[in-house]
Automatic annotation (TrEMBL):
It is found in: Membrane. This is Transmembrane 4 L6 family member 1. One of its GO terms (cellular component) is membrane. It comes from Eudyptes sclateri. Coiled coil: none annotated. It is a multi-pass membrane protein. The chain crosses the membrane at residues 12-35, 55-77, 173-193. Belongs to the L6 tetraspanin family. The keyword Repeat does not apply. InterPro entries: L6_membrane. Keywords: Membrane, Transmembrane, Transmembrane helix. The keyword ATP-binding does not apply.
């Protein structure tokens, strides 16, 4: 009964992580094209946190590859054992692949959080906001050196009137806030599911050892 429960959990968590991994990749790709335009990517005017692509290699490839490989090995092992239900993995597979997914999701969560905190790279009028002279490309919310980090972040995220500081790309602040927030939500969910998969694997190993006795 426990073995069936472990197998059912794996069959549910695995596909969920694959869907979340795909969503993570899509969100990060959109970050590279603010407003749907490729102009700013070609010019190199994209946030460094978006160009780091944590949603692609962290929340996407690492999670999807780890879970796909673990599921594939689980199916192979269950066939070798001649079992109808998906059997628990051997200890090496049980722990290594979900841990890789957990690390990838955690990296995506941290980098996305930094990207959201620092704000987008945009073309803004520095002289109007006391950050310098003239218009330039930069991080207007990060360059507000007179404010504390927490206060600056809170003001930028909750005071939408400050978003108009960015002249180009149009709507880039909202674009970054929505997509980085989505990456945070996706990666946090991935971490929870990957942790559940690790616990599920531990339960499967213990169950297998007990059955062996």
């Amino acid at each position: 009964r426990v073995t069936m429960c472990v197998g059912k959990c794996s069959r549910i968590v695995g596909p969920c992580l694959l869907v979340l991994g795909t969503l993570s990749v899509a969100a990060n790709i959109l970050l590279l094209f603010p407003g749907g335009s490729s102009k700013y990517l070609a010019e190199g005017h994209i946030s460094k946190h978006a160009k780091a692509m944590p949603g692609i290699w962290g929340g996407g490839i690492a999670v999807s590859t780890a879970i796909s490989t673990a599921s594939f090995l689980a199916c192979l092992w269950s066939r070798e054992e001649g079992m109808e239900q998906v059997a628990p993995l051997h200890p090496p597979s049980t722990f290594s692949f979900p841990q890789l997914a957990l690390l990838g999701a955690a990296a995506c969560f941290v980098l996305s959080g930094v990207g959201l905190t620092n704000g987008p790279l945009c073309f803004y009028n520095a002289s109007e906001h006391g950050h310098g002279h003239g218009t330039l490309w930069g991080y207007p919310f990060l360059d507000a050196g007179s404010q504390e980090l927490d206060a600056r972040t809170e003001n930028y995220l909750h005071d939408r009137h400050t978003w108009s500081i960015c002249l180009e790309p149009a709507g880039v602040v909202a674009w970054n806030v929505v997509l980085f927030s989505l990456l945070l939500l996706v990666s946090a969910t991935e971490m929870v599911l990957a942790s559940l998969q690790i616990l599920n694997g531990c339960l499967g190993c213990l169950c297998g050892f007990c059955e062996g006795k």
